[in-house]
Amino acid sequence: MKTFASENIRNIALVGQSGSGKTTLAEALMYSTGELDRFGKIAEGNTVCDYDAEEIKRKISINMAVAPFIHQDTKINLLDAPGLFDFEAGSIEAINACDTALIVVSGKSGVTVGTKKAYKAAAKQGKSKAFFVSKLDSENADFYKVLEGLKTVFGPSVCPIVVPFSEDKKVVCYINLIEMKAYAYKNGKATEVEMPDTKHRLDGLIAAISEAVAETDEALFEKYFSEEPLTREEMMGGIRKGIKDGSITPVYCGSPFNQEGLDMLKDGMVDLFPSAAETETMVSDAANGVLYLSAMEMGPTVAYVFKTLADPFVGKLSFVKVISGKLNANTTAFNARTGAEEKLGKLLCMKGKKQDEVKELVAGDIGAISKLAASTGDTLYIGMPYTVETAAYPQPCYSMAVVLDEKGDDSKLAQSITRLLEEDPTLTFTQNVETHQQILSGLGEQHLDIALAKLKNKFGITATLTAPKIAYRETIRKPVKVQGKHKKQSGGHGQYGDVWIEFSPCDSIDMVFEQSVVGGSVPKNFYPAVEKGLRECVSKGVLAGYPVVGLKANLYDGSYHPVDSSEAAFKMAAALAYKNGLPQASPALLEPIGKLEVTVPDDKTGDMMGELNKRRGRVLGMNPDEDQTTVIEAEVPMSEMVDFATVVRQMTQGAGSFTLTFERYETLPSNLQDAVIAAAAD
């Protein structure tokens, strides 16, 4: 693919709810420009953007994919993002790298949680926004109902550019409201037809567009209110300006499957959507703080790594957007995060999984670099050490323990998981030192399931997921005085150690050791041995083998033998005192309590309160949040929260979110202790 100037580049993210038709739209756009020889279908597993084995198998988008095509001598880089909330990383990657977010909305489903999330994410980053109402060939599709929903949720900035005209619930033609021309489609080819009788339906839409355009410029405002009609050029200029500053969100529509409405969408991308040259990216450096860089080929060279792809055969691929300047193959850049040199290998233009080598990547363009050490989110620079400021990724909220089918795969697992973590910033992998489990955390059940599938397909590691063990603790509730006496005679020197220890509750996490021996009944040189014996014991409690906390041990008496006593004997005597004393000290289990902040839509507040009560939670307060949501603060037992992420998503259709952090330990209710003890014995 040839090199394009930044003013002839459009970077457009396809975002929105899963199932809205993003991947089909990308496929249709590429096919309509001759970029593809055949129109791939998701059901057949042969689309450009869904090329991963799991995507083909499950018929869903999992990864963000780049799909460039050329229209009117303009390069349009489509960034097809997954819509499932488990794979939100792909949506963030696409919005980070795009200049315009094209939010795809199903003509059947209308405005959904995914629509709102995509719009909010794009607005938060200051990206231009547009809507495409898809699937208008489907039964029960209703464009005007969807349009009403868009206006209700997102306000008066929503302006339709193309609208359908239907008869008997079937689209007959599409009307371009700027040109005031109607087009019918046959086999994907547009033919201008006579304007249909819309019975004044368009009057209000045209007036709304004209008013929105007028508000973008003072001269247009005066002309509009003097009731002079705006020219096509004035309309185009006003819409272009409004899209760039966010005051206008255009709406296109069509049927990608039937190749309808795509020509007007492509024209809009070129004529109305901001070019790479018109956008600015927020960067920072130590000297100047935050500033904005334009996509200028002659400017400082800055590129942002917005996605990493780990492939066991191809190697590591880093997807980059050139913010300013130019990248050339076989040159050296620097990593702003690490300060290390980065040798730039092959520069690639990606089209799904297909790679075309290019000599350079200019300001505003998107490509990939092979075998970089950089990670997702890193900034590459030559000259000035700028760092690109981008949106953060959501924190993992669903954790499971990984159990390998083959025990010998432990070292191989660590290496392979590292590759997956490079690819997906919303995954984490930790070793729980208390439960000795390997914990994989992500955004949902399907997220972790597919991570395991990738381990098997890419690296040959098979494993299963189980619920993680809860790190309980044990403590005592009353003081007790006990003796521990170790006496053994086996010829020659024997072994003798005798201690009296008082065990009592305290507030310390670590064991508190004191001594109040009088009269030298236990020599001072044996105190450390007694303490060491006790500290080794408290790692395993007497109820279920969990570590003991809140324990104070006071050595107050004992006896010794001048010949047979030794450190080992007193260490053993302390252990015997521990084993004898703790069962008499009213031992109890402690469970970890977490601090929860869960955000739900206002109408789901009652349902969530009921759910938290079922989970033995204590609600501490409720605070209204933005977008008609409520933040509920509560304390909940960690053992009750294993599947909470799934419940929140189901209850709120994906609109809810939460954070859960460890707060403290509390006594486990007595009616639950037997089950925990029995489980620990298995």
Brief summary of the model shown:
By secondary structure, this protein is an alpha+beta fold. The chain has 16 helices and 37 strands. The strands form 8 sheets. An 8-stranded antiparallel β-sheet has the order 18-17-23-14-15-22-19-20.
Explain what this protein looks like in three dimensions.
- With 682 residues, the protein is of the alpha+beta class.
- The strands form eight sheets. It has an eight-stranded antiparallel beta sheet. Strands 2-3-1-4-5-11-6 form a seven-stranded mixed beta sheet, with helices on both faces.
- Strand 19 and strand 20 form a beta hairpin.
- Helix 6 packs across helix 8 and helix 12 packs across helix 13 (567-581).
- The longest helix has 15 residues, at 445-459.
* pLDDT averaged residue by residue: 93
Q: How many H/I helices?
A: 16
Poorly predicted parts: none
Spatial strand sequence of the major β-sheet: 18-17-23-14-15-22-19-20
What's the multimeric state?
single chain
**Overall form:** elongated
**How widely separated are the two ends?**
62 Å
Q: Would you report the number of β strands? A: 37
Category by helix and strand content: alpha+beta
Radius of gyration: 33 Å
**Helical amount:** 25-40%
Largest sheet: 8 strands, antiparallel
Beta-sheet strand percentage? Answer: 25-35%
List the helices and strands and how they pair.
Blueprint: E1 9-15, H1 22-32, H2 53-58, E2 65-71, E3 74-80, H3 88-97, E4 100-106, H4 113-124, E5 128-134, H5 143-154, E6 158-160, E7 162-167, E8 170-176, E9 181-186, E10 189-193, H6 201-214, H7 218-225, H8 232-245, E11 249-253, H9 262-271, E12 280-285, E13 289-294, E14 301-311, E15 315-324, E16 326-328, E17 332-335, E18 341-343, E19 347-351, E20 354-358, E21 360-362, E22 366-370, E23 379-382, E24 387-388, E25 398-404, H10 410-423, E26 428-432, E27 437-442, H11 445-459, E28 463-466, E29 473-476, E30 480-488, E31 495-505, E32 512-515, H12 527-537, E33 551-559, H13 567-581, E34 587-601, H14 605-614, E35 618-625, E36 629-637, H15 644-652, E37 657-667, H16 670-681
Parallel strand pairs: 1-3, 1-4, 4-5, 5-11, 6-11, 32-33
Antiparallel strand pairs: 2-3, 7-8, 8-9, 9-10, 12-13, 12-24, 14-15, 14-23, 15-22, 16-21, 17-18, 17-23, 19-20, 19-22, 25-27, 25-28, 26-27, 29-34, 30-31, 31-33, 34-36, 34-37, 35-36
Helix pairs in contact: 6-7, 6-8, 10-11, 12-13
